[in-house]
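Exercise 7. Given the encoded structure of a 311-residue chain, write a plausible sequence.
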């Protein structure tokens, strides 16, 4: 009996596939931090309220990603919430198993230390799980050829406005910066950097992200032609996304106690340098989700139009 002939079997098979994809994507994104000693230590050293705050922010980001990409093509708001809870729960479970396998969690450890380590390590894994459906989907998940209604619904589900793009940018910035913020290197670089270097880093961050999103012609890139609102202008969106990246960087530095007892110039230096990684994450986040519609593919369409005009 084929999968199409057995709804129950198909439902079970699809559920199993979704879990496998979520675990795989979670490990692809979260594995580097599972090998990071600073994050193990921060799981025990950080105050519980900071860890809880990071988990809350991470859950909000996961909900936002699931809203934009969708674990289920025709899911409701309740489905999105359930999928987000499942992604966070799966992140916690995978982090716990891997940390036990690595010997980072032992029987004589206190609940406080175990919960802190697992909570911090679960964040990037949950991010990966939330992206599993949209980025690691099987060709069978795509609308069948000739199913115009399904294709239109999928396209409409992927269309996002300026506010949602910035939300996605914040999620990508958080994911990328989370890989760097717990390390000592960002503190050393921030304290040693002088103002000309920081200005150069800011300029490079803006130029790279502007080029990646609007001019590199990546799939999911944006149309470089200005729209009606400031947020539909390449420079306007790039500046807004970079400001959000700096905010995310500063928040992470505070969460990991990197700003305690540190002079303002050093904090600014750490924020700007960490902002380079965060801004790249913000750009990648927007590219990964794109718009799925005419606006999201505007860069490609614009490029094709220019090519046709030139020929």
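Solution.
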């Amino acid at each position: 009996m084929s999968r199409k002939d057995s709804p129950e079997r198909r439902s079970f098979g699809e559920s199993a596939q979704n879990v496998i994809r979520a675990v795989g994507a979670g490990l692809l994104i979260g594995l580097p931090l599972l090998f990071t000693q600073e994050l193990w230590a921060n799981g025990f050293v950080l105050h519980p309220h900071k860890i809880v705050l990071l988990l809350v922010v991470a859950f909000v980001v996961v909900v936002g990603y699931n809203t934009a990409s969708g674990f289920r093509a025709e899911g409701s708001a309740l489905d999105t919430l359930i999928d987000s809870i499942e992604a966070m729960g799966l992140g916690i479970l995978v982090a716990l198993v891997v940390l036990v396998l690595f010997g980072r969690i032992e029987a004589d450890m206190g609940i406080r230390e175990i919960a802190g380590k697992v909570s911090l390590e679960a964040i990037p894994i949950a991010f990966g799980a939330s992206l599993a459906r949209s980025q690691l989907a099987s060709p069978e998940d795509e609308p069948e050829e000739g199913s115009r209604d399904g294709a239109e619904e999928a396209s409409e589900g992927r269309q996002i406005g300026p506010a949602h793009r910035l939300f996605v940018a914040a999620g990508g910035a958080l994911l990328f910066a989370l890989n760097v913020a717990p390390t000592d290197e960002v503190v050393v670089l921030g304290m040693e950097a002088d103002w000309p270097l920081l200005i150069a880093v800011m300029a490079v961050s803006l130029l790279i992200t502007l080029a990646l999103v609007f001019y590199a012609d990546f799939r999911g890139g944006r149309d470089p032609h200005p729209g009606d609102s400031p947020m539909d202008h390449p420079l306007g969106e790039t500046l807004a996304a970079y400001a959000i990246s700096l905010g995310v960087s500063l928040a992470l530095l505070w969460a990991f106690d990197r700003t305690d007892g540190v002079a303002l110039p050093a904090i600014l230096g750490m924020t700007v340098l960490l902002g380079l990684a965060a801004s790249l994450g913000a750009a990648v986040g927007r590219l990964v989700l794109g718009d799925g519609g005419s606006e999201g593919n505007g860069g490609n369409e614009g490029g094709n139009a220019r090519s046709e005009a030139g020929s």
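Remark. The chain has a mean pLDDT of 81. Students should compare their own answers with the one above.
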